[in-house]
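User: two proteins, same treatment. go.

Assistant:
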Amino acid sequence: MATVEFDFLQGQLEERKRRLEAAVASTPRNSGLAGLLHEVDSALDRMEKGTYGLCLECHDTVERDRLLADPLVRYCLDHLTRQQRDALQRDLDLASQVQRNLLPKKGLCVSGWETSYHFEPVGAVSGDYCDLIPSEGQLLFMLGDVSGKGVAASMLMAQLHALFRSLTQMSLPLSQIVSHINRFFCESALAGQYATLVCGLAKPNGEVEIHNAGHCPAIVVGRNGVVRIESTGLPLGMFMETEFSATCVQLETGDTLFLFTDGLSEAASENDEYGVDRVMTLVRQQAACKPAELIAACLDDMRAFTKGGSSFDDMTVLAVQRCD
């Protein structure tokens, strides 16, 4: 385990011990508190002996995401009891439901813009982020990908969602919103955690302001062909003082902005990845389609390419089309 993560967990456990000791002193007959204090002391003792984070059954490494979520975990997934497995599954099912409730309304149409998206976690929860926010007659759209997978990534995804929802209520310029969120990630995320993000503001007159922070290219397709909009900044959470510049494009009626996470472009057959070029080719061929039809055609093409093989990454696709 990385030193910064180990130090973080040790600090968390020491803080919990202080709080538990104070609680036990005020309610000495509470056996539940005393039991928790014993668990924390045991974890700190394993840290001193260098055995923390190792499964007590097989001595293999306990999953990193589970330790970050619960520093008292003592067994790897392969050696949970049936009761523990059932409890974990209930928690994951609940987390999955909560995360899906954070997704935007399907088929949202706002101020001359029609939208559709596809959200496909590789497991119960996802590190992909997708949101659509109507704001003062305009449409804010966001698509992101948090580093890592599983519960820890999904927690950062939920933070992204909450931050955007809160900051957009303040009527700040989009560039300032992205900068504020970058600073928050730098200050609060663990070492090695970051998020790529493409977001933008679609106006009723067809003008779209796009910010791409280390994410896959945004694709604009329409009567004038296909335009690929590359990243103009680093992912969120890497450096505190980072500028995020915007790319502005003008979309005509029927033009579509197509966004995706790398779960699509990195989907693989036996010998090759699907790739951004194939995405662009497909989008060009289906340029006349409505957003939902375009996404469906892209997914069908990708699955034919991979021959229905298993996916190893979360995948989210978003299409925003200017309509009459």
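Protein 2:
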Amino acid sequence: MGARLAIIGGGRMGEALLGGLLGAAWASAGELAVVEVVPTRVDELRARFPGVAVSDSCPPTDGVVVAVKPGDVPAAARAGAEAGATRVLSIAAGVTTAAIEAAVGPGVAVVRAMPNTPALVGQGASAVAPGTAAGEDDLAWAEGILAAVGTVVRVGEGALDAVTGLSGSGPAYVFLMAEALIDAGVTVGLTRAASAELVVQLLVGSAAMLAESGQSAEVLRAGVTSPGGTTAAGVRALEAAGVRSAFIEAVVAATERSRQLGG
């Protein structure tokens, strides 16, 4: 009996997907498989996920998630197709659906996705784009897998570079902002430990308000900014320093770099 899904690549993202799928009851342990070639990693995965088949070759399977380095994607996708997979979901950056379709041959639906690292804690933001042979059912299949570790949006493949520049690279922008805010707290007299604790909860709480309030970022920001108050003074300093423009330029630069790497 074959697997319902094989994850080719047992690194951090592959492990996150496996844990998310099991936690969401998308499949049972016996229906999932992981392909990993590093012996020590094989042992780690077997210990953490009892009942999941972990080996160095792809077993018979209905579908595969390709979670390997970009240069290894065609071979991994081909191995999945040769094992019987009729659907391939690639989460590797820069490898086009056309390249994957050429590797797997006709009769296999290819979906490409760009997740981000918060998927490691079940809070990822992913985008999926279909290949030429992927239909509505195939997109829904891919969305179901990625929904186990966060939210999913559909885009055309041409938009995936923009997704990479925004949400793919975005965690680094947020972490850099957190670093700066912690340093700012120390500058105005807080201990580093207290500043870090306050900043982490600041980000968690603010994100929760964005996600749950139903209000836009602009409305929420205005709600904190009383005329002539302390927040207004801080926001004015940020705008004078060009922070808004800096974030826009960061996304533009990362998007362009993604296009260069994919080309």
